[in-house]
Amino acid sequence: MKNFVEELRWRGMVHDVMPNTEEQLQKEMTAAYVGIDPTADSLHIGHLVSVMMLKHFQQCGHKPLALVGGATGMIGDPSGKSSERNLLDEKTLRHNQECIKQQLKKFLDFDSQEANAAEMVNNYDWMKDYGFLAFVRDIGKHITVNYMMSKDSVRKRISGDEREGMSFTEFTYQLVQAYDYFFLYQHKNCKLQMGGSDQWGNITTGTELIRRKAGGEAFALTCPLITKADGGKFGKTEQGNVWLDPRYTSPYAFYQFWLNVSDEDAQRYIKIFTMLERTEVEALIAKHAEAPHLRELQKRLAKEVTCMVHSVKEYDKAVEASEILFGNAAPDSLRNLDERTFLAVFEGVPIFDIEAAILPQNVVELLGATTQVFPSKGECRKMIQGGGVSLNKEKITDANLQIDCSFLINEKYLLVQKGKKNYYIISVK
Fold it and tell me: Which helix (H) or strand (E) holds 33?
């Protein structure tokens, strides 16, 4: 079998790994799981790192288990958080889990007839009927409070400057997660748990519970946390998440995110977020170094990730949309954009609302009086005569042009360009 740990190492995806993990994976097909918090109905790129680990794991011949934390999602993980999160009801959690499952199918093969077919499990299924007294008797007695308080995620919240401290509910989180590992060890022969580096304490509590309660050996492997430009973590409670669901981050905006990363980040991300082989990645990095201004590395990164998360069709639309804004795309390309992509491309552009009843209207009247794209009709007429005004990416050469509903994009919008860089949208109600 392909060496999974070695594969992750060259990709920069190993932060901590328990001794003998690599030997276990080389010895036999092994089941491993990653826990996914279902507090939103979409994954974001912070989750994508762990999902890619599962994808590589399956490609290396092992069995990936995706654990959706229906039970732990009702508690809230204190790791990396400065305050307690809101708890969700079961109906919301079930909805979120189903949405996440559909996203995971793009990465993992759940339908394979092979022994390493991916599986999805939900810890709510084994926790919902587990009584409190039975849990503290059967599980709690095996892990000491001293051991739990030694974990960074707990110690920082208790001994730091946080006024809110930590509730007993959150304190029990690592014990519940440890039981997840123990349960999967017993029922799925799962011997490895993976996650972000902030999960190391929770994961190793699980290996300790398996050792103490079952006399078994289990392993742990974590990957680095992905950081934003300001060094912050991509998390659900942070600003600026890049989501996998197109409702929250359009495919165009998703594509643009990867296209606009720095050269240094592109070299890291193309290893982490794509399935490209090492020789091809190294060749791409070398080629990029010869002509960084061409941004070939970012273009390939954006293509690979957008195709994987969305589709080739959405990638093609994103490229075409980029050409509209930054290149010399034909006017027909603009008309072919769906409304969501059109608005994503021109996000932040000033919008003027008008009533459809006022059309048709003279272009100078429309731009220089009705909408104030220009401060005056005289200035508008002068710029049209100078060739500096475009409507829907076509230059206006006639100041007497009548604008009617046939000009509308998606039967709703007009795109005005003043000079090279100034765009305006006229929205027709």
Answer: strand 31-36
Q: What is the chain's Cα-based Rg?
A: 27
Three-state secondary-structure class, residue 132: helix
Note every long-range contact of 366-369, with CB atoms under 8 Å and residues 24 or more positions apart, other chains counting.
366/403, 366/426, 367/416
pLDDT tens per residue across span 144-196: 888 888 877 787 777 765 556 777 877 888 898 999 999 999 999 999 999 98
Phi and psi angles of residue 353, each rounded to the nearest 5 degrees, phi first: -100, 135
Residue 429's alpha-carbon distances to 356, 405, 416, in angstroms, are: 6, 11, 17
Q: Which of 103, 198, 199, 267 is catalytic?
A: 198
pLDDT in tens, 79-136: 555 444 556 777 888 899 899 989 999 999 999 999 999 999 999 899 988 999 999 8
- Which of 47, 56, 157, 300 does the annotation list as catalytic? 47
d(CA 400, CA 377): 12
Instruction: Give ∠ CA 377-379-382 in degrees, rounded to 5.
Output: 110
Three-state SS at 240: coil
CA distance 22 to 32: 13
Q: Where does residue 271 rank: exposed (0-12), middle (13-18), buried (19+ CB within 10 A)?
A: buried
Active-site residue, from 151, 236, 382, 418? 236
pLDDT over 70, % of the chain: 91
Strand partners, 423: 417
Catalytic residue flag (residue 382): no
Query: Residues in the chain, how many?
Result: 429
- What is the helix (H) or strand (E) element at residue 425, kind and residue range? strand 422-428
pTM: 0.84
What are the Cα distances from residue 355, in Å, to 336, 365, 396, 413, 429? 24, 14, 22, 12, 5
Is 85 annotated in the active site? yes
Catalytic residue selected from 177, 193, 267, 341? 177
